Every structure is written in C-alpha cells, then in structure tokens.
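Hey L., structure's done. Input below.
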Amino acid sequence: MRRVAFLGLGAMGAPMARRLVDAGHDLRVWNRTPGRDGGLIAAGAHCARTPAEAARDAEIVITMLADPPALEQVLFGPDGVSETIAPGSILIDMSTVGPTAIHVAADRLPEVAVLDAPVLGSVPHAEAGTLAILVGGEREVLDRCAELLDAMGTVRHVGPSGAGATVKLANNAAGMSTMACLGEVLALTDRTGLDPEVVLDALAMGPLGSFVDRWRGKVTGQESRVDFTLALARKDLALALHEGERLGLRLTVPQAAAARCDEAIAAGRASEDNTAVVAEIRS
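Output:
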C-alpha cells in the first residue's frame, strides 16, 4: 500500500483514481470543482481541501489536469503541491501538457523525482485499467512506482524526462491530422454521390484500416458518446505546434488540422467529441 495524492478528478482522472483505491492504496484526492469525489470517498479515498493538503506526507503525487496553466497553478500556486511535497517523493504528471511544462516542474522541484506519464485511451480504458501509459524519466524512479501505474494500464518507458509528454503530443497530432484528412476525403466522396458506408468499407481495406475501424461508429453518427472533446484535441495540437516551433520545425500537416479544428470550434462544436471535425468538414 502506498500513500498517494491524486489531483484532478475529471472524466479521466476519477476512474483512474478509483483503480488505485480498488488496488488498496491510501489515496487522498483533490479536484478544483467540488462534488466529483463522492464515489471515491465512498470507496475509501480521503478528500483534501487543497493540493498542498493532498500532497502532505504522500509518497507519490499524481496530477491529471487540463493544461499547462492548470498544472502550474496546482503545483506552484497558493496552497500548491510545492508547499508540502516531501523531498525524495515522486511526482507523476499524467496530463497532456507537453515536455516544456514537465521540464519546468522538474527544475522547480529539484528534490522531487518527476515522471511524465501521459496516457493513451479514453474513459472506458481508464475504467477498465487498460490505458497505455507513456513514461518519461529515470528508469529507477519508474521502478519505484511501476506497481502503482500497473493498476491503471500498461506501462511503456519511452525515454528520459519529457519523452512521454513528447510522444503523447506526437500521437495526438498524428491522430487529429488523420481525422481531418478523413473528413476531407469523405467530403470529396460525398460530393460525388457515393455511399459513405461503401467508401468507409473501401478505406478500411487500405492503410487507414485500423483508424476507420476505430472511429467508424462516431463518424457515421451511430455512436454519440463524447470521450475526448474537440477543444482538448485542439489544445494538444497547439502544444505540438509550440514544441515544433521551439525545435525549429514547421509542422504543416498538424497546422492544417488545427485550422480545421478551429472551423469546427467556431461552428459551436468545441464540447463535442473530437470526431466532430469530420462532420464539420463534410458539412
């Protein structure tokens, strides 16, 4: 059993935290918006009033937050984690914030071991404990908390500090670029009067096969569940583009996907599933 603080109980954070409670860990939780911890408290977690209170005496602090400003506030704002986190403890950021935010956090918490461990998957994977967890940081530090992460999914060590955050941005940029491309080719075939189901059958026979199979239900409107909002997808594209600029790269395809996302957001689709970009392009 480990003493763990879990900060951020959104759509993904709450089921991830529940996996840790069910695994028998001593969990203290905090969320910016009150009222999301009821199920966790009933299951045995403890509620903290502030991030600082949650982190006090914790061996491991996990953050699952929306963006870099949220991470900055929770770690270094008033009543933040930095006020109470113990030297020698481990901070695991599982958010999608990019490597720059991870490096800043590590620099400002020199006595704390920091891992970046963003996840691939959505709410059903978080509930089932089948997330893919991309870890950047020292292998020795990962070994100290691998059992904890195993309760939430399959762990893959991808490199030094910031590597997990970078690979996560690459994954999401590739995914949204492909999503925008799918929207454009479906718009093309729509204009020629072809049956979309027949077109998707044909696309599934080629290099887009797994992508079409995964998203077909949402693209065709047969599934309406929101697993990952378009606003968050656009945020991740912005982070990827920022990293590209920092490294002197022109990421023209993700830039085009970002423009398509902006069109869909301007049309009022920000809170819809990220696949809404396909519907907006086709419209």
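Residues 32 and 283 are 37 Å apart (CA to CA). The first helix runs from residue 13 to 22.

-- N.
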